[in-house]
Amino acid sequence: MFLVVGSTGILGSEIVHQLRAADKPVRALVRKTSDPEKVARLKSLGATLVEGDLTDKASLLAACQGITTVITTATTTASQTPGDSIPRVDQLGTLQLVEAAMASGVSHFIYLSMRTNIPDCALNTAKRTVEDRIRGGCMAYTILRPSFFMEVWLSPFLGFDYPNAQARIYGSGENPISWISCVDVARFAVMAVDQPAARNAILELGGTEKLSPNQVVQLFEQASGKSFHVDYVPLEAIQAQRSAATDPLQQSFAALMLTYANGDTVEMRETLEAFPMKLASIHDYAVRTAAAIH
Fold first, then answer.
1. In the chain, where do the E strands start and end?
2. Hey, which of 15, 118, 143, 252 has its CA 20 to 30 A from 129?
3. Distance CA 226, CA 38 (A)
4. How far is 24 from 186, CA to CA, in rounded Å?
5. pLDDT digit string (tens) for 239-254?
6. Domains, the chain, ranges and CATH?
């Protein structure tokens, strides 16, 4: 039995989908405050639902009973309910999940982390702290460190407003990024379940293309047939935002924007030899989103 934590998120729900498509039994952890539509989708996929919260140790112990593999993508960065924070949920809450998994005899813990080139921030501290605990525990582990998700960073949610042919770009837009699809990250998580090369391994993940944001805009212009208006956020403005931030989420987002501005590339040749798959391209994503608009 697999426990997916963060199951209502874009990545967690895709992992549930892929596990169920492979006829794997899935238990999905949901909160009382979870979106009813997202919960209904998990049910429709055939997942067994269990109510719990990373801040509630007893609920985590109950959720981990009879589980062989835990996969967690949970984070407060996409949405927060009152009382949530990165230190409380992403760090302390996930550490509680690790302890509950070990106490329950879970044999494999798959953790969505992030790249190590992120400047110091609350999210970076949380990820490294949890990684250290996982690596020092008694479970086999797989740590996934993906680069920037194309479905998130190239979406209206973060200013890449392709339906209206407008794009916000952090920095000059000249530095390449190994954009990766959430679907492909989910595939790595699911493959890690049975792939020996994933045991006690850290996987740095990116797409096969290394494209600058400016190049990405050009691809979207070609796919949509529209000329984009581009708004550049200067590096100095991002640095000032990070320095002035008092909230852990604002500080962490500014740190991620700095990494975006500086570029982030991942060499995937050896990883794809161990985990053979065809990765989605930015061109595919641009064509798909343009078709959806029309």
1. 2-5, 26-30, 48-51, 69-72, 108-112, 140-146, 160-161, 166-170, 201-205, 229-233
2. 15
3. 33
4. 14
5. 999 999 999 999 999 9
6. 2-147+181-205+265-277 (3.40.50.720)
